[in-house]
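Field log, afternoon session.

UNIT: design team B
ACTIVITY: writing a sequence onto a fixed backbone
BACKBONE:
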């Protein structure tokens, strides 16, 4: 009985240890191109003309896209030492008024809080804040 109990404890310890394994580090600079925002603060978004998207250009370290209503543009900052680090300082938008600006306001707040990226399932990418919480998820735009 003692051997069985020790075996179960060992299996449980190995199982929990594997849960703590580090995720594969995603190099932010590999995200060149256009991306639809498909999740924002945990809520799914179906891409349409009124949903946020990003166009990332790492050759020029420039960001373009839309918050859903207004066009956005700005700078991309990455780190050579920590490949997953990314931020978007000095992002600007056009100033058009739209019927519902709530999602755009929420997205712009999330975008300004981004500190890194991580790989998600199905080829999606999560943009993560300082507290390691996924702020929004993107999928490659067709």
């Amino acid at each position: 009985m003692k051997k069985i109990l020790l075996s179960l404890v060992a299996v449980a310890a190995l199982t929990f240890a594997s849960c703590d394994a580090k995720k594969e580090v995603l190099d932010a600079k590999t995200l060149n191109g256009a991306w639809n925002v498909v999740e924002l603060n945990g809520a799914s978004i179906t891409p349409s003309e009124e949903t946020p998207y990003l166009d990332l250009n790492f050759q020029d370290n420039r960001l373009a896209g839309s918050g859903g209503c207004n066009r956005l543009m700005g700078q991309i900052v990455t780190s050579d030492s920590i490949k997953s680090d990314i931020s978007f300082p000095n992002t600007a938008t056009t100033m058009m008024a739209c019927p519902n600006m709530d999602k755009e306001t929420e997205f712009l707040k999330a975008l300004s809080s981004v500190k890194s990226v991580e790989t998600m399932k199905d080829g999606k990418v999560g943009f993560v804040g300082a507290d390691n919480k996924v702020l929004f998820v993107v999928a490659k735009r067709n």
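LOG NOTE: The chain is about 20% helix and 30% strand.
NEXT ACTIVITY: expression trials, pending approval
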